[in-house]
Amino acid sequence: MDQERIQHLRELLNRASYRYYVLDDPEISDSLYDQYYRELEWLEAQYPELVAPDSITQRVGAELAAQFNAVPHRLPLYSLDNAFNLEELAQWEKRLVKLAGAVAYVCELKIDGLALALTYRAGLLVQGLTRGDGQTGEDITANIRTIRAIPLRLLTPDPPEWLEVRGEAFIPLSEFERMNQERAATGDKLFANPRNACAGTLRQLDPRVVSRRRLDFFAYAVPVSPAATQWETLERLEQYGFRVNPHRAFCPDQTAVQAFVQHWSTARHQLPYGTDGVVVKVNDFYLQAELGFSRKAPRWAIAYKYPPEEALTQVQTISVNIGRTGALTPVAELVPVLLAGTTVARATLHNRNRIYELDVRPGDSILVRKAGEIIPEVIKVIPELRPAESQPFTFPTHCPECKTEAVVEELLVRCPNLHCLGIVRASIEHWCSRNALDIQGIGEKLVAQLVGSGRVTSMADLYTLTAEELSALERMGTKSAQNVIISLTQSKTKPWSRVLFGLGIRHVGQSIAVLLTKTFPTVKELARAGVTDISGIYGIGLEIAESVHAWFQQPANQELIAALEGAGIQLGNTEPSTRAGTQLAGKTLVITGTLPKRSREECSQLIEDHGGKITSSVSKKTSFVIAGEKAGSKLTKAEELGVPVLSEAQLEELLGLMP
User: Fold this and answer.
1) Are residues 322 and 276 part of one domain?
2) Which residues are 533's β-sheet partners?
3) Separation of alpha carbons 188 and 392, rounded Å
4) Is 180 a member of any domain?
5) How many structural domains compose the chain?
6) How many CB atoms lie within 10 A of CB 495?
7) What is the mean pLDDT of the chain?
């Protein structure tokens, strides 16, 4: 019986590990994986004669994906043993003290991302590898170069001849939310969590995709360090130009370690990135060397893992909300449950397809979690607990708000009525949101009042409100009304990029809005732009260009722009020029291939700083093509059309940057 259980656990864990690390498509939760792993460890300890070399407990990681070159690590990347409660943490420390006497520690937050090993030669980044199986990693150097938190050149004036830096690439929670919203809008499969999204991003074969997803990075180790302690190493990493997590602590004893762990068990929910635990390391490198390694993990470090942020609750009803683009978004109304430090009563179901995929119904018992510890979402239905009289949920064929027949666009269902009150409310809420015009005091309830009364039919109407009429509304005093008017007045001077984002054009997020407003510094220029003009901007595809162009062609939107302009909204760039020069004024450039010193994003910024414009395709109108290694078809086309081709060094010479 035990032998059969061991074999079953091995097969289950190997399959789960393959799906998690290779396919980036986990089939079981981290907490369940840990439970099975610990059971297998315990059984193998009871029956050592049954331990097999192919058991997952005898290896560091999983197999490699095939699409990138496999490169052996110069030094292995070991995994860490885990502690799941303070008692296990204390037992680990007790073993250390027995071996080494009094020990001091460094505590660092365990970031939910992907481990990387970066190699620098003479201060320049030359290679970036994933952890892989711990012995061999995947060469994703081109993708790593797009992460702005990773320096391409060390800041130190006297860099070592060879340096390896290890750290964690991750996706901030706000970016994770944006990515999944875009995927939901297009019907793509959603990323399960930020770690999954990060792994999938770094395995993209097109670095431009990686660049558009704003990955971040914290450095945390130098395997061969001239420093004497982990704390000193972290300080050196900062001096080299790396981001090092500021939430770290030197702990002179285990009492301080436990205090750090307990503090971040709740404080971590306020962080802008995911963290599922704390890594505790012996500070002194001499002691680390004395303690050494087991077959799969260092004895001088351990990962304390917090309990999973999932909860079991019940679906009371399923409602369908109308978004600013008219998309009908299903939401599960839940029996309230405590999750990640807050009470959750609603969870997104994203789109119609997600409902059918989960087969979620009113009355179902479900598992809910906070995606990236921000957005509650339903992740699994427990069919065994389903009521006998349960019926499948029928997605509406008409808009629940205005009763207009809905339009099915691939996997999305959309209300086509631009005057639908649901769309109007959502559009105004978006306009007032923090990342758009940031209008304080206008929230969901006030918007509902203003729209429901017919007083406000668009965001332009907000600027005709008076303090007197606002103060007459329910739960709105004189002071609150005055503050709203002040905030509305202040919003008129917000940058053009935030205004464009606030308009709520489909597919135009914050980063796309910035790209658009750099090329089209006024609303009139953008409104006149054709699809080809817009899609020619580096980082903007055809779908976005068509959406922007179509939006400005609609008479209702043209009227809205005119009304906003009449209200005094800033519809163009008024900031003084910060250009480094004008050598490229009026020039259009294309970047292709891998440049020796800069990422494409950095080179694009350099060109824009000197007055040039970046496009993604080569034509007769292209002024220069900046070509690096593996330039490909764009270089060929430039040569066919007679477009001048420059290297990065020649571009620097043209801009007067050469020494």
Assistant:
1) no
2) none
3) 23
4) yes
5) 5
6) 16
7) 85
